[in-house]
Please model this.
Amino acid sequence: MMFWIYFAAIIILPIYAQFKVKRTYNRYSQVRSTSGMTGAEVARLILDQNGLHNVKVVESEGFLSDHYNPLTKIVALSSHNYHEASVAGTAVAAHEVGHAIQDKEAYSFLRFRHRLAPVANLTSNASWIFIMIGLIFSSMNSLLGIGILLMAVGVLFQVVTLPVEFNASSRAMDQIVSLGIIRNEEEGHAKKVLNAAAMTYVAATAVAVLELVRLIFIFTNRD
Model:
């Protein structure tokens, strides 16, 4: 029974999350916003209203490649969101600007995640070397323990990402509602887009935590 729960979590949950976000995005990217503002215009308006005139809005390649870079102070929006006036594009653009507002206000979880990122990238890549050696050679259980500790840093990064993303979505909704960018039923549609996107982070974190727990279980049982 536990195996099937684990299997469902690490395989089915991420697939469902990706399916959910793509289906929801595709649906509401076809719904034109009543404001008639493109994602680029939405991002620029919210940035200017929050005194972030130094942050640029640029177009990026790729499907849902939208992101905010705190180092370059750039909000990058995928082509459709940048050029089209849709409810989905409005929600995504506002979400990325939410990160820019977090950056301006020195949001604690965002600052911690930025500091943790380079360490997490290094330890996550190195962890599997120790883990694989430790799993193959039972006499080298100490290497498995080292790998687990290194992996835990990467898992911590994913856990910290959750409040960052949820907070950015909350800020996004506050901005597009208060500025009158979306109206009436559009508010519910925008929430669906943001919630679906958040599901992917939740799924990724759940998988990472479960894998860490599984490895800890193997390590402790060996001892």
